[in-house]
Design goal:
By secondary structure, this protein is an alpha/beta fold. It contains 11 helices and 8 strands. It has an 8-stranded parallel beta sheet, with helices on both faces.
Length: about 270
Amino acid sequence: MKKHVYDAHVHLFPNSLLKAIYYWFERAGWKIWYRDQWTPQLVSHMDSIGIKKALVLGYAHKPGMSLELNQWLHELQKSYHHLFPLGCIHQEDENIEEIVSKCLDEWNFAGMKIHALVQKTSCDDERLFPLYELVQKRERGVVIHAGTDPEETPHVGFDHFCRLMKNFPELKVQVAHLGLAETDQFLQLAEEYPHVYFDTAAIFMDKMHLPMERLRDIIMKYQDRILFGTDIPFIEEPALRQMTMLDQLHLPTEVYQKIYQDNMKKVWEIS
């Protein structure tokens, strides 16, 4: 078991919304390990497996819900000071700039989250440009689910992300799930943009998987650009297994320190 792990990719929601998301996964054929566990249980579980700080990623699947969900995340942080929310917006929200400003300026969120797959929009959708402009200006960050795993749709994929970075070359981005299933292309692009990072969330599930030898090579080469993440609770395995799988890579101690803690401190300015 790891001590003082920093998790750069977890999801917590109000019970009613979390219940609906669990039901969606069930209908889609997923066997969620944490099914019917709610925020207090999930936070307690994270602590029990050594997760001492975490980024909590919200996302809005329809317009008009962002502000209320962000308010809930703000209240959540008051109860759990070791949790750091990333706000959400929907591309059809009428008041995107107001929502982003409230998250970043009034509530001091670490950044924002875009889930291209769930929101059914590409990350290079121009309606999202005001968000990127505000985030970049404030030197904050954004987490984006941009890759084609676990489901390929017209809204996800490397090409969209490439166009986004051409428009916002200084944007700090954490690409979820190592950009699977186009990892190599995302990694190559990251060599052109110094503020592109990656997380390991859910990459050991059967639906999203890299060969272990390939993963070890990637982590060794990009050890300063990769953050540990679990994707709690939307995974089909206990989160502790992800740590066990990483341990089996037999990385140098200093690399584990970067992946499990130091990179998240650096990227998101969390101590």
